[in-house]
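Cross-posting from the modeling subforum.

Setting up a comparison between two proteins and wanted a second pair of eyes on the formatting. Protein 1 (sequence, then structure tokens):
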Amino acid sequence: MRIDIISVLPQMLEGFLQESIVGRAQKAGLAEIHLHNLRDYSTNRWRRVDDYPFGGFAGMVMQCEPIDRCISALKEQRHYDEVIFTTPDGEQFCQPMANQLSLLENIIILCGHYKGIDQRIREHLITKEISVGDYVLTGGELAAAIITDAVVRIIPGAIGDEQSALSDSFQDGLLSAPVYTRPAVYKDWGGVPDVLLSGHEANIKAWELEQALERTKRLRPDLLKK
């Protein structure tokens, strides 16, 4: 899978992309991630990519030309399944969406910045708009990092124990059950539930589902409604 990320601050993502599962997936050849500095596609002598909005609104807006030039240059080299724009008014990012994106071959993620991008880019070049939450970030770089991490980690082989990814929260629409590790008894904090020490797989699975349902009902009842 190839992910091309377009940003005015690509250095924000450089360290993140080299670490942990995302970094290992690239070294193993499972993912190919490229950063593109939008300023490299500006024809302005000061490498500006933004300007004042028409109508006298506050803030600055990312211009059409550098974004168009960058995306067009990438599209000349390969086909892209999705051109994603990170924006607060996009579709809410979720695990099923991450699963779907992980099956694609090539995607572009355009990081929003300033007040946003010229609406004509959204109408003519963007195929999917994604929000990572009902709040506003300084830029879309953190959102791009979240999307990249969630997508890459479920590519087969990215995680040593693939069953671990399949049992994560939200994969089945529920929160995960509580987890424990050694020692079985610690201080006076109580012990590990007996069922987890029993080795009885069917009972453990039943306990896991029961706990997942209880936690979801208590912490995220909205998930059960879906």
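Protein 2 (same layout):
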Amino acid sequence: MKTSLKDKVAIVTGGTGAIGTAICRQLSDSGARVATNYRSDQKLKHWQEQNKGQSFFAHKCDVTDFNACKDFVAAVEKELGPVDILVNNAGITMDTTLRKMTWEQWNTVLNTNLDSVFNMSRQVVQGMTDRGFGRIINISSINGQKGQIGQCNYSAAKAGMHGFTMALAQEVARKGVTVNTLSPGYIATEMVMAVPEDIRKQIIAQIPVGRLGTVEDVAFVVDFLAAPEAGFITGADIAANGGQHMM
């Protein structure tokens, strides 16, 4: 059965990245009206050129800024209508071992990857509960589940996302709102494909299905969790990692 999100309004943070773009396209193909944020005018122009024919609404917003997120959601609701679906996808890495990590590297990653989840969710949760429907989907990572050398900041933020998911899921479960985490493994984004081939082969050798994930693999799960029919799934952390890490 094909998912139908007709008349639903979705926000995807970090939508101009590879995974974010795939999520925007998938939700749009399922009938949703989709909005995303951006920070760089130049990157937005390039992204719009790559997505000609798509009617995404884009608004400049730094997701680490609570008031900017408030303005972002207000702009989306004015343009598209009340927000039904929020995909917290924005994220960055600043990798180094803890003994070399600066406070700025720690704080910047936590602000972008974890604080943004609060900043955005806080703006939409009341409206979702009032209307009796909502989907909040937090894009975490395999490294939030198992940790990774050189990623104390990133792994902490991504693990924290699921703690947030479980707590909020319990708060809103009786109001028709679900909150879930999706934890992708290694996805064939431009960044991963830039890794030397011999290293990529070593990574793939650790993945039981024998390949890297695609951005469409991630977008499909988001689309599924966003569906009205997925209302019995909440507080879950869904692994999309090809079997590389099983919990």
